Amino acid sequence: MRVARSLQKGQQTRAVILDAALALASHMGLEGLSIGALADVTKMSKSGVFAHFGSREELQIAVVTEYHRKFEEEVFFTSIREPRGLPRLRAMFERWVYRVSQEIDSGCIYISGAVEFDDRPGPVRDALVAMVHAWHSAMSKAIGMAKDEGHLRADADVEQILFELHGLILSLHHDARFMRIPGALPRAGTGFERMVQFYATAAGIAADAEHRRVPSR
């Protein structure tokens, strides 16, 4: 029982450190993370922090993994409750936009990490790429399902749609966070609606409109 309690306490302590690291990385970037900075924030000794994360690189990877876990929880797992097709694709994009809107004052680790590690090979970059690729794969699958459901045109290019949707997210983050341009959020929504009008079939538009009339469950 003492061993079990010790393990539980260790897991709780690690979770506290990881939460603090995630907050620091959101504001300072992954490169701003250090064992010393975390020790100051958590009021722990450097050796205490080091015991849970044996290196700065291991800490950075743990932060990327935790960020991805929360992203999936807030964006992906809530969206897949929606019907396949355009309603689910809309849910995924709108929750993605909402997540970015909540990070305007802190920053998106996917986006800031891409800037920090775009030309720096290594385990941290590999972890970032893997997480972003996992999300893009989920979006591509949702787009493909929308085609299969007859909600998007048969000739719609899945990768092109993904590229356009990701472009809207990058523009939103840039204009809202860096440029502080008012109205960036509704512009992202307008961009999505234009994408729907261009790629959607009559059946897809009807299914999307019908689903939006039904109160959220």
Automatic annotation (TrEMBL):
Lineage: superkingdom: Bacteria
Pfam family membership, one: TetR_N
Keyword line: DNA-binding, Transcription, Transcription regulation
DNA-binding region: 34-53
Domain HTH tetR-type: 11-71
PANTHER family per the UniProt record, alphabetical: HTH-TYPE TRANSCRIPTIONAL REPRESSOR NEMR (PTHR47506:SF6), TRANSCRIPTIONAL REGULATORY PROTEIN (PTHR47506)
Name of the featured protein: TetR/AcrR family transcriptional regulator
Species of the source: Roseateles agri
